[in-house]
Design a protein that fits this description.
The protein has ten helices and eight strands. With 278 residues, it is an alpha/beta fold.
């Protein structure tokens, strides 16, 4: 399979392992960093429905963490500060400079918030793509988390990743070759050790981010109807948006909101970033 994989972007060495980063658009334009949710097998293809609509107006960057997309899979630490610092280091090594507009989906919302906490000058604004906030995890129990991890272990053991419906995937805007690459990456990546290590750390990571306090920066948050997430998801989004004085836009759609509302999201992003320039 390795010989069939064709990187769309560039590989950057972090701690002796390759991390894949895709960049498109003028480097002198505002920089949007798209950050994938937990277990998204191929972020560079998952987000194409957004960045193809944004690349004329922005420098768009997709970071694939270890275990995701074309990046290496290995027993990497998944505490929140390691996750953030590795992504920052990848951008630094590629010569990118902030400030960035972070656009996290789902669980990477914790990483975006932490990025602002740890490196405040790096983050100009946040665009939440049904992003997780610390309060989402307050009602999670270790027992519930253990069940999720055991499911991933069994799914990998019985090769359930080969079933198309088992992982989120999007074919919008993809060429025939890209669809094939996405399938190869699903078979390689789904339920890997990096995803499981992230799951094992998520409650602790949420506690760390929450303890560091509310961040302050311009933000617009897009949220789903919450039916594919966890209890209280939309209410937690509303509370977080209120605390940041952020605009909240609710869509009656599934968790991967960019599959359903890419046009509306991109139009709103352009309006939002234009307001930052004033």
């Amino acid at each position: 399979m390795k010989n069939e994989l064709k990187c769309k972007g560039e590989l950057v060495s972090i701690n002796g392992h390759d991390m894949h980063v895709y960049r498109q658009g003028d480097p002198n334009k505002p920089k949007i960093v798209l950050m994938s949710g937990s277990g998204t097998v191929a972020p560079v293809y998952d987000f194409k429905v957004l960045y193809e609509k944004l690349a004329d107006d922005f420098r768009v960057i997709v970071i694939e963490k270890f275990g995701y997309g074309y990046s290496d899979i290995y027993e990497t630490p998944c505490d929140i500060d390691t996750l953030v610092s590795a992504q920052k280091e990848a951008l630094d090594k590629l010569g990118e400079e902030g400030p960035y507009i972070l656009a996290p989906h789902s669980m990477s919302g914790l990483e975006a918030i932490r990025w602002k906490q740890d490196y405040p000058e790096d983050v100009r604004a946040i665009i939440g793509l049904d992003m997780a906030v610390p309060a989402v995890y307050q009602n999670w129990t270790e027992k519930e988390l253990s069940k999720r991890i055991k499911f991933m272990e069994k799914a990998r053991k019985y090769k359930l990743q080969k079933l198309p419906m088992i992982c989120a995937g999007n074919k919008q805007c993809l060429s025939e070759d890209e669809v094939k690459q996405q399938k190869l990456l699903r078979n390689r990546n789904a339920f890997n050790i990096c995803y499981m290590n992230e799951a094992k750390e998520v409650l602790k990571n949420a506690e760390i981010v929450d303890a560091a306090g509310q961040i302050e920066c311009p933000a617009v948050l897009f949220t789903s109807n919450g039916k594919q997430t966890s209890n209280g998801w939309v209410e937690h989004q509303k509370n977080f948006a209120s605390g940041m004085n952020a605009k909240l836009i609710c869509f009656d759609c599934g968790h991967y909101i960019h599959y359903y509302k890419s046009k509306e999201i991109c139009e709103e992003i352009k309006t939002f970033v234009s307001s930052l320039r004033r």
